[in-house]
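Dear U.,

For the methods section draft, I wanted the exact inputs and outputs in one place so we can describe them consistently. I've listed the two proteins in the order they'll appear in the manuscript figures. Please don't edit the token lines directly; just add comments below if something needs changing.

First protein:
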Amino acid sequence: MSLVAGEHGPIEQPRPGAAKSIVYMISSFALRLVQFVLVVVLGLVGIATTVIWVGIPILLLTTSLVRGFGNLERRWVRKMLGTPLPPADRAPVEGGVLRRWRMRLVDGTTWRDLAYLLVAFPLSVVEFVIGLASIVLVPMAIWVAPWIGWVHGSLAVALLGPNRAERLRVKAQQLQASRARGVDAAEAERRRIERDLHDGAQQRLVAVAMNLGRAKNKLDREPEAVRALIEEAHTDAKLAVSELRDLARGIYPAVLGDRGLDAALSALAAKTPIPVEVTVDIEPRPPAAVETTAYFIVGETLTNVAKHSGATEAQVKAWRTDDKVIIEITDNGHGGAEVRPGGGLAGLADRAATIDGVMTVVSPQGGPTVVRADLPCTW
């Protein structure tokens, strides 16, 4: 099961494999030829015969074909090139036939579908030739075909993906949800700190005050009893200091602030009862909020692995790209981890969302389980 913060933000086109790119370029030619001929011929005939009403149903059919071909292309590009294109977000259409047609004509998605179909056919001619050549020429198959597939996927993102207004709307929804989850996570953390203070250090300090008060009352009459009370107060004071230190370490570990994520994650791995391999390559050092979030995600995940997964080993990998820190925790346990509302994994996703991060959990039955967090370094 996976949990990803957000619905669909800015779409990034991955680099497709050589084999799929070649198959895509060769097999798409016939499809594009049929689409181009149908759309252009029916469109021109419909426009030319509109004055005698015959063109109206032809244009209605053409509009429906354009939208249907656009949906087909989204699925085809998504399957062959790995482009994460969401389904078209079309405005709902109601009313009579002519009203529905008019609504479709003013829908920007329809016109972007048409633009893609008109551009894709001449490109498919070139791609078809390159695809055939790539079957014979190994250098073209290795280097040129994937690059052509990436270019076509990027074109599909530009024309078939959500428009700018839609992306801004989704981004605003993501930020609103992230802010709400961040407030909830901060409130939960505040309650935890308050509870720990009340049940721990506060009780110790109250005991210290009471013992010192009793010692003050017995100072002149029972010096030996005073000594015992002061020793007891001294012990309670040291325990209170220790509990406050542990509480502060739970908020921001000292090793993380002093030596960074590499040392902090290695310390977490050393405390885990199963072998954990740690690989960290994070330079330059990210902001403190990112380090703290990464630290607690790894710590909580390793705790869950040790308690619930049945794993015998785990791996922690952390690396940095230009604008984000990526954390991956993998274990060889029995899998089946689920993100439940109010559960530990959902809490980690909420913590990542406070800095606009995305956490993904993949845990099929039988394992392995992979927990990944993409944490932006700027927000």
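Second protein (the one for the lower panel):
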Amino acid sequence: MYGKAFAPEYQGSLTTLSVNSSLTDVLAAGTEQLRAAERAGARAEAARSGLAVAEAHRRLGQVADADRAWKASYRSAREAGDGAAMAWALWSGGTLARQRGAFPLAWRLLRLAAELGGRAGDVVVRGYSLAGMAETGRIQGDYAAVTSLHEQLLAEARKRGEARHTVWALEGIAQIHRNTGAYDTAYAMFEEAAGIAAGAEDRRGHAWALRGLADIVSVRDGDTGRALDLLSEAEVSCRAMNLSGALAYNHKMRGNVLYRAGRYEQAREVYAGALAEFEAMSEPRGTALSRLGLVKSLARLGRDAAETAADLDELAVALDGIGLRHAHRMVERARTELGLARAGTEPGATAGAGRTEAA
């Protein structure tokens, strides 16, 4: 039903690159081709190769380089009059904006990319851009607004037999189910995504699916050993492809699993490592979530309650600034869990206090 996964963001002379190519290899090949295209005055090819450069920088956590690269790709595409290439550059810029926590900018760029891709007749970039919008809303916790879009994109991907996009959509819907407490449904969807990704040789999608399964196994079943094994398996792919962001989120989830198991000292160490990884790539969402795990771990290890409360206050402000609705609720639940509920709030009064969301 599904063919081998491919990477449509590797375009022009770079279409021979595999979806599983190491990002350092993608960056090297893309940079070489970009320079050759610029020397030849081939603006369309410069735009296409520049897209791969931008995506490699983004996934390696090199934010400033990624920002320059997608903008240069867009300028080259505009000069060439290539509407589809312009849409792909905007998609890359919107995805980077989401990664940086600039959600209003992400919405704007991704919406423009979808519109431009539609006018240019490129159904793939239109689909990727709509998917980016859906993921942005999901990350912000606005599930009601984007669940139907996720489901629409899943149906379209299944119909076309696009493994990579099917896996993405399954994982997104599974995450929504997981965060609303439907663990069995979430597990089944993560499991299907893992199977499709493995069959299509999509190591990135497979790694994210394993992370989702590890989360469910930990929170639903309390099976710490299996959860850690799944994360270790996913980490192999992340390291092989130099997926800096995915690896950092893998480590943050490892901290979650250890924390749930009451292994607070180990959780503290892992959260601290993940925090450093996110800070190195200027990723505010991962930074805030790792800080939250670290604060909770330190509290369990005996840290002063007033210091813990002050840190949670800072995190609440930071998460409000980023626009992460469900992550803000996680801070409120942390207060209750640690006996630090705000004045006038009874312990356990926070909505959904018995359920821990994951991001």
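Candidate sentences for the figure legend, describing the second protein: Residues 343-355 have pLDDT under 50 and may be disordered. The first helix runs from residue 23 to 40.

Thanks,
Y.
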